[in-house]
Every structure is written in structure tokens, then in C-alpha cells.
Amino acid sequence: MPLVLAEGIQKNFGSLEVLKGVDLRVEEGEVVAIIGRSGSGKSTLLRIINGLETFDAGILSIDGERRTGLEKDLRPLRLKVGMVFQQFNLFPHLTAGENVMLAPREVKKLSQRAVRELAEETLSKVGLADKFKAYPDQLSGGQQQRVAIARALAMRPKALLCDEITSALDPELVGEVLDVVQRLAAEGMTLIMVTHEMRFARNVGNKLIFMHQGKVHEEGDPRELFAHPKTPELASFTSAIQ
Amino acid sequence: MSYAFSIEPILDNWEIFAQGAAMTLLLTALGAVTGVAAGILGAVSRAWRLPVLSPFYAVYVECVRNTPFLVQLYFIFFGLPSLGVKLSGWEASFLAMALNLGAYSTEIIRAGVMAVPRGQIEAAESLAMDRWQIFRFVILRPALKTVWPALCSQIIIVMLGSSVCSQVAAQELTYAANLIQSRTFRAFEIYFFSTLLYLGLAILVRRFLKAFGRRIIDGRTA
User: Fold this and answer.
1) Of the four listed, A29, A107, A129, B102, which is most buried by Cβ atoms within 10 Å?
2) Residue B1 has pLDDT above 80, yes or no
């Protein structure tokens, strides 16, 4: 049973068809990189998986549970898939530690002691054990994004969705965030990432999805696809990027 | 210009002044707490278009913002007894001030709620928080922080506006001044001194609110 199974997902924004029947299959422990030009529907697909967007047609099941896309209560789904955003979206009035502790304490009702240990554990996993008491505006972009990863991990999700998590970072800070993601991948975390980091997609991913005009245009082994793209669209995309 | 300023009418009646100032502060404190609480509920009702509450607040806000405070006060004090609701002068004053501030602060706090970046709310949603948890832990403090200066000004406006509560025999500062003036006929001294007292109270309250904002709303330890 795949962790994420999507068949024929369609999404329209008014008359604009953003997704025109997307199929996606992600097994537990897989690291899937989704690439494609801007406007190809990558982020929308990720947001649909997390329930931040509804969808208009198709079948989506997460961890064996079928979703209609119209549920009022998305919390059971969101306990299974965590999300990290391009703009970090840390809560600015809370310290790094409080950012991590908030949801486990309020949503999972864990004790103060348990959430504190959890926050210390996840923050040290992203290399920021010493920043527990720092506020977001006292951290660099790369550190903020690592706190955001720790915050998502603290909910113990089965999969982590990463939406262009290095796109808003200064180039010299990209590495520290990708290192964290690479370590998670090595530990067996299921990752679905929309990314522009082609080298990372090739070296760390088990599967590459190339989206083009609202569809999965090509998919397969990253090294294989980068070396021998089957379609001219992927070939021109990779050559434009490298 | 041969007016001889006399300090006696002030010194002789300092206790009445002090009681009046204390009543003004008490009315302001109660009105501010109740009014801001009503404003927080109003802001979330309007921002999220909650059924029942949102239309109720829409009507309430428009009614209060487009009518004079004195007429609202008269309606509560002189009008409501016809419906069997009899309030004392200070009760009617408190209610009028809270209602008035509730309406204005609904709009002020709503602006703060709308200013919280969408991404932070999405991040909270993706952490499986429900909307009330999101409001309480993610939206409320940053929203209040954003609009706190505007909210403080509105509280001061309501405090100064409470001077008309003397008209329904609430024994606040202006009531005290009127009383002393009618006894001493020293209008210049009495109203000059009351003006100074209002100025002092306003500065004091503003300072207190500013410190409160820094300590409680912002609440940063570093």
C-alpha cells in the first residue's frame, strides 16, 4: 500500500486548469523530487496532498485513507503529513523552542516535559539545540528553515512535504538546509519535495517527477532521467537549468 | 485683566477631585477590559464570517460608530428603564463605554487579524491545529501587537469621552468638577485644574498601556 496515492487529480482555479489529471505514487521511505517550470502545478499538487487546497476530480488516498477533497476536518490527515514552506512561516512571537512545542502540546496534548524533550530532540536533529530560546528574527534564513523542519518533525509525520524550501534562501545557506533533508532521507523519512536543486534531486532522490502543463510528463529514476530524458520538454528544462 | 487666581477651591475640595479621578479610572479600566474583549470576539467573528455573530457585529458596529456617545448613554440610562432595565449612573456609563469601545476595537483588531500573514496560518493548519487554537496561539498576539498603538489611543478617547457620563450622574471627574464649581463659583480654577487632571490621567494611562503591551502582548524575553 503506497503512502500517497493520487490518480487523475484535477484542479481548476476558475477557468485555469492547473492540474489536468495527475497520477502520483509514493511508497513509504521514498524520496520523491518534483521538478518543473513555474506554473506547471508542482506546488499546487503538494498543497492538495496536505489539504491546503481542494481538488476538483480524481482519487487521493493518504496512508490508506481515501480523501474526497471536501472534508471539513483535515486534522487527521495533517497528523500524517507535515509540511515545510518556502517562506519558513515560523510564528514570530514565539521562540524556536516554542514554535516546535506549540502543536505537540496543543494538538497532541503531550505534557510540558514531554514536549520540551521533543523540542530539544528535534532541534538538535537540525543542529540548532543552542537556539532553543532564540526568536525567528534573531536567526538566519537557513536557521529559520531548519526550525521549521524541526517543528514539522515534532508532530512525527509519516511523510514530509517540502515546498521549494531553499528558494527563499541566500545561496550560502542552501547547503545547511539540504544537509538536514539529506540526513532525514538517510533515516528513512518519506519525503516529497518540490525543488529547483537539480543536483540534490539527482543525488538524494529515489524518484524524479517532471511536471509539465499540469501533468506528470515524465517520471522515473533521477540519474536515468537526467542522463537520458525521454521527452524534449524535460531535455530542454534540464539544459535550461544546468 | 484683573482676575485673582485662587488655589483654595482646589485644595479645599481635593478629596472630591480624587474620588472623581478614581471613578474615571475605574470606569476606563472596566470599560477597556470589557470593550477589548468584545472587540476580540467581534474581530474574529467578522474576519471569519462566523454565522450569527458576524451579522450581529456588523449591525452593532455600524450603530455605535454612526451615533453620538452621549445619545447612546442617554438611551441606556433614560431609555432602557421603559423596558424594565434600570441602571445606576455608573452602571449605565460603564455599559455605554464598553459598548462604544467594543465597536471601535472590533474594527481595529480585525485589521490586526487580517494583517497576520496567510503563510503562518497555513503553517499552523499543516500542524493539525484547529481554528480556535490557531486564533489563540498564532493570530491573537501578533494581531494585538500590530494594532496596540491604535487600540491604546481608542481607550484614551473613551476615557476622555467619559466626561459626558456626568450627565447621568456618574460621579466621575467632570461630575466632581461641576459639583465643586457649583459650590465655589470658581469656574476658571476648577476647570483649569480638571483639564490638568485629565491630561495627567491620559499620560498615565497611555504609559501604563504601553508598558502592558510590551510586557504582556509582545512578551519577548530576549
Assistant:
1) B102
2) no
Give me the interface pTM, i.e. the ipTM: 0.93
Q: Give the per-residue pLDDT at A67.
A: 85
Q: Which residues of B touch A107 (CB under 8 A)?
A: 127-129, 133
How many folded domains does chain B comprise? 1
Residue B170: give its domain's CATH number: 1.10.3720.10
The angle at the Cα of B81, spanning B80 to B83, to the nearest 5 degrees, equals: 70
- Do the strands A16-26 and A4-13 form a parallel or antiparallel pair, or are they unpaired? antiparallel
pLDDT-derived band at B221, boundaries 50, 70, 90 = low
Contact at CB, B145 and A93, closer than 8 angstroms: yes
Which residues of chain A fall below pLDDT 50?
A: none
Residues of A with CB under 8 A from a CB of B: 50-52, 74-76, 78-79, 81-83, 85, 87, 89-93, 95, 102-103, 106-107, 133-135, 138, 148, 151-152, 155
Residues of the domain holding B210:
8-218
